[in-house]
Design the sequence.
């Protein structure tokens, strides 16, 4: 019997597994990055197929969103405040970086709350925060709007592309035998949703983020899959509780409502995003500036969508490592450190 | 004397003379320190090593040091990396108009103390004052020379398959200390810079292993960048075990939060050494017995496979490439 708390035993189990073939999708960019960083894929048994799902917020942000941001910077003269990763994501015409070179004002911040603070300190500028992310980051986007209301400022708004995980779990269920659920998301939304998916026959394990936690979660998932019955395991109980963070959930519910959302490379997933409610329209950049509808996405040879759905490995894309590399990303998966293609490239997925 | 630097301090007139007497000569003076146009020094035997380095760190004052200590250590360590005993240093200052004289004195005093600790003489200097906004507070350039013992020859090109790779202490402290001192991330942690003069540990190493192949200062770009540079220069592969790389828990905590790799954060008091395997234990022992290098460790070895790459055994026993050095994470760290 494998001792599931010993690193080398876990590794041996995952190396030598010879049961039925198993597909496991990790739905968290931090998991993707750590799995590559630790070289886990390289020692997994060929019977275990890991798929890097749509869990990196930058990677699933559609080109049309970048076009909207570029429009705000160049046509409306807004100051964009944003996380650094997003600056390099290609839009249909330009990246935000290119818009900055063309005279747009862009400031990299480390939190939406800093974006609001910047707006307060610069009343002469119209400041927009680029609000992308999942359940983990949406509460701070809401706090930024809440702060703007508290401070009585009217020069701050957010351009939302916030997404919610359950919609993705639903949409991707056919691509995998089990999910490696993102520990941080479930620390916020709790575990009930996983139990609901279990009732529909969708399996998964909530995983932590250290090498040992990932190995343990993978070994549990493989073992349960090989037994053939749907399952749900919380393998990150030191952080994830059943109820999650009710305060964060209530905060988001007060300001935001569900909406359909575009996922780069995958397409529209119904009710898989959140946007500000009508009563907060003054803080919704899309409404405030009446942004015209942008075309969804030009077709390129980039196969990020197929990578995110586990249909191909990054190295199978004709652009990988050639026209598309971290210095010149074509697809969003090559931009962020959390992107499947970027991690594959940096850590030598083929070593 | 006025309490801030003015353009008059750089004019060459009375205020300049006062500044030199009251700040520079008082703190840096020694038997070789010159008031003439150039220092006149004894002619050394054998080969000399010479180096120069500019310092523009922001903020100029940070936990564990300031730009003055950095400016001495940077040049002392560059010279020591060639197996040379550092002897003489010159310093050139560009100071922004309005910089407080008390701050300048603190910096210069630190330089004097650090030079005495490192056993080098500051022999000549220059001061210029730039108008407000033309430089950011203070920039310092130092240059230095040292003498090399016969038979000692170090270079990144000399790394050989089979060599053991040693770091002289925990990595990433300086970069982390600067990052926190900028206060842009809203993180507080007790991290001090590792900035230190390292000739003494190098001298001890040369006593037990005069044939050592590589000594390199892991400053900008950190240990990871040094490893890739050497893999490239020597045409070898490099294998390291990430479990053996020493990282202080507080540095681990900060880098974990920000998703940074400690191997790519700057050090200012750490060297990477490569020496024949049979001398590695003696080198580590020599380092462990010397101030500033007590935390020395063997972290890997040079190979003849995977040429030009750094392969890392990870915490869970996987094998990956250490990602190649990328964009500068933080500008103006040294």
Sequence:
């Amino acid at each position: 019997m494998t001792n599931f708390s010993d690193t080398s035993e876990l590794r041996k189990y995952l190396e030598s597994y010879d049961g039925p073939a198993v597909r496991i999708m990790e739905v968290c960019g931090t998991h993707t990055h750590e799995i590559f960083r630790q070289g886990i894929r390289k020692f997994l048994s060929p019977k275990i197929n890991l798929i890097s799902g749509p869990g990196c917020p930058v990677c699933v942000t559609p080109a049309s969103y970048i076009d909207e941001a570029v429009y705000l910077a160049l046509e409306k003269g807004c100051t964009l405040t944003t996380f650094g990763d997003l600056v390099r994501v290609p839009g249909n015409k330009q990246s935000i970086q290119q818009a900055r070179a063309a005279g747009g004002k862009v400031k990299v911040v480390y939190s939406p709350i800093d974006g609001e603070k910047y707006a307060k300190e610069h009343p002469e500028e119209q400041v927009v925060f680029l609000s992308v992310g999942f359940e983990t980051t949406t509460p701070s986007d809401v706090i930024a709007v809440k702060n703007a209301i508290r401070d009585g400022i009217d020069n701050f708004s957010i351009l939302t592309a916030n997404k919610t995980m359950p919609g993705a779990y639903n949409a991707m269920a056919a691509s995998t035998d089990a999910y490696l659920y993102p520990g941080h998301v479930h620390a916020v939304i709790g575990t009930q949703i996983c139990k609901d998916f279990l009732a529909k026959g969708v399996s998964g394990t909530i995983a932590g983020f250290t090498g040992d936690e990932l190995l343990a979660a993978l070994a549990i998932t493989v073992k349960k899959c090989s037994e053939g019955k749907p399952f749900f395991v919380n393998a990150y109980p030191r952080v994830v509780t059943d109820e999650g963070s009710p305060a964060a959930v209530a905060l988001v519910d007060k300001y935001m409502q569900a909406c359909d959302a575009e996922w780069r490379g995958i397409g529209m997933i119904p009710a898989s995003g959140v946007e500000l409610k009508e009563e907060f329209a003054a803080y919704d950049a899309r409404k405030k500036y009446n942004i015209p509808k942008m075309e969804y996405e030009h077709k390129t040879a980039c196969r990020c969508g197929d990578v995110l759905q586990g249909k191909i490995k990054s190295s199978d894309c004709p652009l990988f490592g050639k026209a598309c590399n971290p210095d010149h990303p074509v697809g969003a998966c090559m931009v962020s450190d959390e992107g499947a293609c970027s991690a594959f490239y940096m850590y030598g997925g083929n070593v | 004397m006025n309490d801030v630097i003015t353009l008059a301090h750089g004019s060459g007139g009375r205020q300049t003379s006062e500044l030199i007497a009251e700040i520079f000569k008082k703190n840096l003076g020694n038997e070789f320190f010159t008031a003439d146009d150039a220092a006149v020094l004894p002619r050394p035997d054998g080969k000399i090593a010479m180096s120069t380095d500019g310092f523009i760190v922001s903020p100029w004052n940070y936990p564990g040091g300031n730009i003055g200590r950095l400016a001495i250590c940077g040049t002392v360590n560059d010279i020591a990396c060639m197996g040379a005993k550092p002897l003489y240093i010159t310093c050139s200052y560009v100071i922004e108009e309005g910089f407080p004289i008390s701050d300048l004195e603190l910096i210069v005093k630190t330089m004097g103390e650090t030079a005495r600790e490192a056993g080098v003489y500051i022999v000549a200097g220059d001061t210029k004052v730039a108008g407000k906004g033309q430089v950011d507070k203070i920039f310092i350039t130092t240059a230095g020379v040292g003498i090399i013992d016969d038979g000692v020859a170090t270079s990144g090109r000399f790394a050989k398959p089979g060599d053991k790779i040693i770091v002289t202490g925990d990595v990433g402290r300086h970069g982390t200390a600067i990052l926190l001192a900028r206060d842009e991330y809203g993180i507080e942690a007790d991290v001090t810079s590792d900035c230190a003069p390292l000739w003494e540990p190098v001298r001890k190493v040369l006593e037990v292993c005069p044939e050592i192949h590589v000594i390199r200062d892991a400053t900008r770009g950190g240990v990871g960048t040094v490893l890739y540079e050497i893999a490239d220069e020597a045409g070898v592969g490099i294998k390291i075990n990430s479990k053996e790389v020493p990282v202080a828990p507080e540095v681990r905590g900060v880098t974990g939060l920000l998703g940074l790799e400690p191997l790519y954060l700057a050090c200012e008091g750490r060297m990477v050494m490569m020496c024949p395997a049979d001398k590695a234990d003696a080198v580590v022992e020599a380092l462990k017995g010397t101030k500033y290098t007590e935390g020395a460790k063997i972290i890997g070895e040079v190979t003849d496979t995977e040429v030009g790459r750094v392969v890392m055994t990870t915490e869970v026993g996987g094998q990956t490439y250490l990602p190649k050095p990328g964009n500068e994470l933080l500008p103006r760290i040294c």
